[in-house]
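Here's what a typical entry looks like (DNA-3-methyladenine glycosylase I):
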Amino acid sequence: MTAEQTGLVLGEDGLSRPQWASVHEDLREYYDTEWGMPVRTERGVFERLSLEGFQSGLSWATILRRRDGFRRAFAGFDPDEVAGFGAAKVERLLGDASIIRHRGKIEATISNARATIALRSMDGLGRVGELGAGSTLADLVWSYRPAETPRPACAADVPTTSPESVALAKELRRHGFRFVGPTTMFALMEAIGIVDTHLLGSHRRGSSGLWPA
């Protein structure tokens, strides 16, 4: 396939990246160092889940360029801190230009922090029960890692959902999470390394160490 057919762009550094990661330096840096690398901590997964929720209907560049603002506004995405946000804090966040000022998404992030805490003490309830008491959001999300990962040769081959992302979305909604649809959960799974959707030919293919190149 030609570069036009694959959607890969050869950078001045001689490395191939997808079109979306070749437009601006901050996107290249994110692609080269973060996207698709394993994130397994509760706080790390909660942050990525929250940011994916805020991205809904927007570009990732819009979210990435506000990430520092999001981290300040949401206490470094510490679920215990965010769970304590009340109505007054929501109103302050709605006036914070360093984040996306969307009431539904802000309130969902707070609600999701509370659901994240609740997961720790659940036992005998579906997937969480299978994992055992004391399991975290990260444990639950990673339990949906598939047996195989996509191997996209071009951008058109990259899926937007999977059976696992559909099942994960359903399970999270059952536990009270919001803004966690199948497409958003597949994007989360891509971002934290659960699947590898780097294009074949990208210099990042297989970089997580979890999947063969």
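The longest strand covers residues 8-10.

More examples are in the samples folder.
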